[in-house]
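Thread: quick sanity check before group meeting

JM: Hey all, I'm pulling together slides for Thursday and realized we never actually wrote out the predicted structure for the chain we discussed last week. Dropping the sequence here so it's in one place. If anyone has concerns about the input, flag it before I start.
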Amino acid sequence: MQTIDRVVSIMQRVAEAPGGVTLSELSRQTGLAPATCHRLLRSLSASGMVERDDTTKRWRPGIGLVRIASSVSPAAGYGALVDPVLASLRDRWQECFYFSNLTDGEVVCVRSVETTEPHRMSVRVPLGRRMTLHASAAAKAILAHLTEDEARQLLASVQLEQFTQYTMTTIDEILGDLAATRDRGFAVCDQEIELGVAAYAAAIPGPPGEAPRSLGVIGHRERLGSRIGTGLLDALLSAAEDLSAAMGTTPARAMTW
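JM (edit): ok, ran it. Output follows.
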């Protein structure tokens, strides 16, 4: 059982790290010796559960873990609706597009596609990634369409960690950003989690009794910013509204506190 506990601990840390995690970080977070972490990572890598980025030397979820996350996803029933929309956006814009759910107080990526262009510098969002509630565009789009009390309660339940100088770390400041998100109809994460990276997301209201979802795009800030005003944002918002209609819900831009 000790080995299983160690493997689960490592997989959780890898899945939760927004930009991947190094061997030394894993050792520090799990309390395991670096040699033990490395041995377990090699075993997990052989089965496809984790993979190592040769450039950053960081470990991230592998295709095996992604498949498991996809199979148990609360959004599995919407896969037939969501997957073609994500693929169409990806094929047109060659960026990473992703679909997220609010489940048990966490916003989790449950569908995701990446660029198919082999030489394009890209940012990926693996399936199963827990999105940072106070900073990620996907989470902010969802929280903006909850009641103020619900949003405040969720934000109070997590550590408002400062990832960069652009990260908002007070609840009042974040609630103000959520209000702006509702007014403009989409959420923005501009270098709030990682320098040089930006993301945009639109909310997709859930059916009665279900929390909202969100549709997002993430990429290198300069490239994404140059495309937002030339059709990318309109395409994202239009796709979110199409998914809202297909799911039988109210368009996200009509929702307010």
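AS: nice. The CA atoms of residues 94 and 116 lie 7 Å apart. Residues 2-66 form a domain with the Arc Repressor Mutant, subunit A fold (CATH 1.10.10.10).
JM: adding both to the slides.
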